[in-house]
Amino acid sequence: MKPVHRILRTTAIAAAVALALAACSPGASTTTDTAASGDPVSGGTAVWAIGAQPTAGGVDPMIATGLAAQTIMDQGYETLLTKNDDGEIEPGLALSYEQPDDLTYVFTLREGVQFADGSEFSAEDVVYSFTTYQQATTSKKAYLGGLTSVVASGDLEVTFTFSAPNGPFLNAVSHRETFMIVGSEWYGAATPEERLRSTYGTGPFQVTAWEDGVSLTLTKNEFYWGEETPYLDEIELQVITDESTRLAAVQQGSVDAAYFNDGTLASQAEQAGFTVGDAAYTQALPIFVNPESGPLSDVRVRQAISLALDRQALVDTAMFGFGEVSYITPSGDPVSPQVTEDTPYYTRDVDAAIELLEEAGQPNPEITLSYFGDAVASQHPIYELMQQQLLEAGITLTLKATPTAELAPIFTAGETFTDLVSLPWSYRADPSFYFDPFLSDAGAMNHWDNNTDADAAKALLAEAKATSDADAKADIIAELADEVAEQVLVLVPMTVPVNFEVWDTDGFNGYNSDPYGSRYRLTDAWVTE
Amino acid sequence: MSIQNNVTVVGTGTAPALAVALPKRARRRRPGPAFWAGVAILGTIVIVATWMSFWPPYDPLTTVAGNIEGMSALHLLGTDNVGRDSLVRLALAGRTSLIISGCAALLAAVVGAALGLVAGYVGGMVDAVIMRIVDALLALPAILVALVVGVIIGNGAIPLIISLGIIFAPTFARVMRAPVIALRERDFVLAAQLSGVRTWKIVLQHLLPNALTPLFVQFASVASAVVLLEAALSYLGQGVQAPEPSAGRMISELTRFMQTQPLLIIAPALLIVLLSAGWNLLADGTQDYLSPRREGGIGGKRRRRPGRARTNTPQTAPSRTTSTVTTNTVSTSTVTSTPQEDSQ
N or C: which terminal CB in chain A sees fewer CB atoms within 10 Å? Predict the structure, then answer.
């Protein structure tokens, strides 16, 4: 009897252990179709793991322009207009706008809006905000070209007057992360240091605490104009810089949500029972060209490079499919034109590339590509694969992994560079601003002054910037994108998502990602125990 | 000066002891297990690296299969995130690391030994100035210096060798200086000076050969440290550049696949450990082999072996001068000379 007992006991223990393990395994505990739903519940704190805290400029909208700051500031501050996920303009702090002529915009503001300290929002705050933006040193001012006056034409009416048509203006004021409205009294009374560490807006959540390198706390705005929203009392943004550590936090269940730059890690979070949001492919990876000297001054060499690239293979192999073939206007931007098989020099043809190189008298050009060696490591395989692909056409691509500090002057101060430099960038409020840095006179990466290949593109850009009609502008941008591809004024291997948002399927509800990466749906999110 | 005289000086002075010691003294010493373990590890890496360098089954820089594939008959260690064969790349990473560690240690040895010889032989102000500079350089964290040098002269294998060579040169200068100071007062050196032998000849022909033992040990020891530092720098993106394979960079690039394909991290980590351990074992084995005062193998086991009590090379590291045989303390100044010098 003893052996039988022992066997039974062993079997029972093994079964219990197996059950316990099964219960603990990621796949067993959660299923995506059993996500807690139903009526939203007010209260509670959501913990979100972020990769970086705001740097220079903190959360002051007059100074900060970095991605880490933008996605936090837009919880604290709101804009005159917003856009839905299809890119259509919707009301924000302004309920409507009129354009009596090409040079005038009149906004009618929302009634009953209060700042988070309880003070009333009025037209004076809009005037104060835009006047301050004009006086500030922020790069956002580029969107306000030709603005001559902003006046409160009523308690809830503001009139903007321009000296010349400003095409990007409407897009700029409807982007949640550009012209955020601050209060003349509350924000105006805060010291510059306070503005860096806290928000003073009308948004659903205000930054109320910030422990350097550890976390930021966003507290519910009790005076928010939404009827029931926001539901959450607090959002704690935990700063976990290392992506693998962030994944571990997700797998341990110590955070409700997180974002990853690397799609493969987001997939691993998905296996841990988290939901992965619809990633917005808004980070184009442009490789800028310096045609001032060397083989790239010849358009045929540039075209050969573009032809030698197999962009879809780059997406599939280097990025595990987490990318899209795109123009310099990122494919995820609702207003961006999409690449087709007719897009010039986008379909791989190695023989044609070799022919072009022979025509140019440079059958084996040697080209240097510099990229951020100390950042976005998940994108480095793209360059290594490009090197392989170009070699098949006889092009030697030398990779130069460069520290960020060394590359920064190229895109901030217009410092020159050798051949090619890759600078990933993010969503722009107006599509013309994707072209601005390398085609406009003031663009830091514009090295085309002595090369006529860019003349047609420059003319199209000027036309796009002067056009405010959305449809007309879309046509010009499509033509411009093709012209840039034809002349290969910039090389775009692909567009990738700025980040992949993941959240607890069971505990974090009512949320979804948006194409702008602004997390505006946090207003509608709620947590369940 | 004869061997017998030396034995009288450092030995117990009893006739039976001598009778036992002399026959054993004559027997040829063999390297210990530590030495052979080091040689075996490094030898294996060299063989595999040579094989993969000259007859690679796949191009190490080309995508040959799907990415992050597991172990298979075609790809013994699977493939990396770009679909390149991991085994070939790992072998070449081992080769790169071996070459960098060997060359950097050699450069450091040449520069450091030259400084140590000059400082030790000339003495006075020259010695003071050189050694204070050496002290200052030793006080700087190696990784910081390597990063700064990398920024100044660029990235890649050759800049790495140069920067790591400069970083580790001071350790060789110290190791070389001590025996040279001991040797410069010796009769054979004085005799050479009196005979009108040129200074450089005295340094190279009389002093250097007698101070080589610690240099060999230091060489292997530094090579081990270089392996780790090179891996750290490559991990930080400052070492060997893409797409050339490097164990440190493999770890930094592939950490994100740690959960899905752990072998991608384990293999390069193991390579670094093996390379470093290989050099270290070689250093230990060389020390044991060339310095008879220190007995025992990997475990540092020390036995009383009176017949091997004497050294015929100078001792430099104070921690390693403990004699298991002599009852009287032997300082570096009482070290006996080599038979080579006795013949002079």
Answer: N
- The answer to whether the beta carbons of residues A287 and A369 sit under 8 Å apart is yes
Structure tokens at B29: 């010493």
**CA distance to partner chain A, nearest, from residue B322 (Å):** 48
Q: Which residue of B has its CA nearest to A265?
A: B256
Query: What is the value of ipTM here, to two decimals?
Result: 0.72
Helix (H, G, I), strand (E, B) or coil at A370: strand
Q: State mean pLDDT over B80-96.
A: 94
pLDDT tier, B266 (very low <50, low <70, confident <90, very high otherwise): very high
The CATH number that domain A283-496 falls under is 3.10.105.10
Return the domain boundaries, chain A: 27-33+41-51+204-280+499-529, 76-188, 283-496
Residue B62, chain A, CB below 8 Å: the answer is: yes
Dist CA A444 CA A411 (whole Å): 5
Question: Considering only CB atoms, which chain B residues are within 8 Å of A403?
Answer: 151, 237
Q: Which B positions 259-318 lie with beta carbon below 8 A of chain A?
A: 259-260
* Other residues' Cβ atoms within 10 Å of the Cβ of residue B110: 13
Rounded Cα distance, A66 and A52, in Å: 10
Topology, domain A76-188: Dipeptide-binding Protein; domain 1 (3.90.76)
% helix / strand / coil in chain A, to the nearest 5?
A: 35, 20, 45
- Mean of the per-residue pLDDT values of chain A: 89
Phi, psi at A426, each rounded to 5°? -115, -170
Which residues make Cβ contacts (< 8 Å) with residue B260, sequence separation at least 6? A264, A268, B68
Q: Say how far apart CA B269 and CA B258 lie, in whole Å.
A: 12
Amino acid at B111: V
In tens, the pLDDT along A346-363 reads 999 999 999 999 999 999
Share of chain A above pLDDT 70, in %: 93
Write out pLDDT tens, residues A413-460: 889 999 999 988 888 889 999 999 999 988 889 999 989 999 999 999
Is A426 within 8 Å of A455 (Cβ atoms)? no
pLDDT in tens, B275-320: 999 999 999 998 888 875 544 444 444 444 444 444 444 443 333 3
Asked if the Cβ–Cβ distance from B252 to A377 is below 8 Å, we say yes
Q: Are A327 and A481 in contact (CB under 8 A)?
A: yes
User: Do A317 and B83 lie within an 8 Å CB cutoff?
Assistant: yes
pTM, to two decimals: 0.77
The pLDDT value recorded for residue B28 is: 62
Q: What is the CATH architecture assignment of A27-33+41-51+204-280+499-529? A: 3-Layer(aba) Sandwich (3.40)
d(CA B105, CA A484): 52
Q: Nearest-CA distance from B29 to chain A in Å?
A: 51
Residues A260, A247: contact at Cβ < 8 Å? yes
